[in-house]
Amino acid sequence: IGENFANTQVIGKIVPDEKDLIQHELRKWIDREELRVILTTGGTGFAPRDVTPEATRQLLEKECPQLSMYITLKSIKQTQYAALSRGVCGIAGNTLIVNLPGSEKAVKECFQTIRELLPHAVHLIGDDVSLVRKTHEEVQGSAPQGHICPNKTGTGSDSDRNSPFPMLAVQEVLSIIFNTVHKATNLDKILLEMKAPVNIPPFRASIKDGYAMKSTGFSGSKRVLGCIAAGDVPISLPLAEDECYKINTGAPLPLEADCVVQVEDTKLLQLDKNGQESLVDIMLEPQAGLDVRPVGYDLSVNDRIFPALDPSPVVVKSLLASVGNKLVISKPRVAILSTGSELLSPRDQLTPGKIFDSNTTMLTELLLYFGFNCMHTSVLSDNFEQTRESLLDLFEEVDFVICSGGVSMGDKDFLKPVLEDLKFKIHCGRVNMKPGKPMTFASRNDKYFFGLPGNPVSAFVTFHLFALP
Question: Which pTM value belongs to this model?
Answer without folding.
Answer: 0.43
